Amino acid sequence: LAINRLLEEMKKNFPDANVNFQAFMHLAEPLNIRDPNDIHVAAAALASKASIIVTDDQKAFKTNVLKEIGIDVLSANTFLQNLAVSGHQKIIHAVLKDTRCEGFWVV
Fold first, then answer.
1. CA triplet 15, 38, 72: central angle to 5 degrees?
2. Where are the beta strands (DSSP E) in 8-90?
3. Of 7, 60, 72, 92, which one has the fewest beta carbons inside 10 Å?
4. What Rg, from alpha-carbon coordinates, does the chain have?
5. What's the CA gap between 78 and 56, in Å, rounded?
6. Is residue 25 within 8 Å of 40, Cβ to Cβ?
């Protein structure tokens, strides 16, 4: 399946990106994430000390608490635009390599 290939590519290109978010679930619960099914995303951001959550479901993460603790929520397009402006072409190439995401455009 395409998703399995994508996951394998992500693991190969970003080996340190796999985090144990379970230990951080209790910290993520007070963040007022709208969809309880997305709490694990906030927990993973906390566990990895991320400064950005990249999602096209930004409504689920519209919370001032995230901003206050230094986590921005960006769409995939905005994230890639920021990478392109900052000159990280190698990262963009790795992310887009072999992916075919319908409705995903880099402007």
1. 70
2. 52-54, 72-74
3. 7
4. 15
5. 10
6. yes
